[in-house]
Amino acid sequence: LAEESPDSAYHSHGSSLEEEAAERMDDEEQERLLSYWQSVGRGHQVDVPRDMAEPIQQLTRNNNPQERQTIPFTLIQRKEKLGDLLYEKRQYGKAKWACIKMKEKQYEQSICLGFMKLMRYICEQNSSGLYLGITVPIVTIVHTNEAQSAMTQAVTVAYYLPEVLQDEPPHPFDSDIIIEEWPATIVYSRSFQGITNEDSIMREINLLAAILESPELCLRDTFIIAGYTNPAAANRHNEIWFLQRP
Description:
Blueprint: H1 6-43, H2 53-61, E1 69-70, E2 73-81, E3 84-92, E4 95-102, H3 107-122, E5 135-136, E6 138-143, E7 155-160, E8 178-182, E9 185-193, H4 198-211, E10 218-227, E11 237-244
């Protein structure tokens, strides 16, 4: 056997040390991010399991605003009053979504747990084995009673599949996640900031219902909360969507 030169031995040893250091930093980053999410989760009475460490890290590293794909829509109308935007009327095209139904005691628990399941799907736990990429907003379908005075517990958290995956979406490993095709829809959208819970959602529903000229054109018991920031963020950018009747 040929002897290893001191120079090549140094390089191979040096590179393995660098790899070890990189792995250690990788592990430390994973732990730091996981513990942050776990502390946020506790605030929503949600346990964030250890197997979320890798998806959280992947999502964080890929969380450049430039790399997020916004769900395409056609703007039909902007309704303003004294320079303030009251709402937008938009048309969203037919598209495929990865959906998961949740029914926790509190809305915040449902969206956090649903979002974590979708994160695993996005972060390689799918038939392509690839990171699928983030699209915004992540949406939650909520239901109320006919009088629009209270929300029901069951919600659906949904992720719009990126354009390149629309024709052949990767299959989720999680059998709770269903790929659905949603028809083209006209929505009335109004922005709001902050946390989303039963109280804030009912307030936003009532606010938009009061502003719309013809609320009777929309579904009375089904609404969408569109989230542009992840559920762990304190100051979230959200929208309430009313759906025009088909």
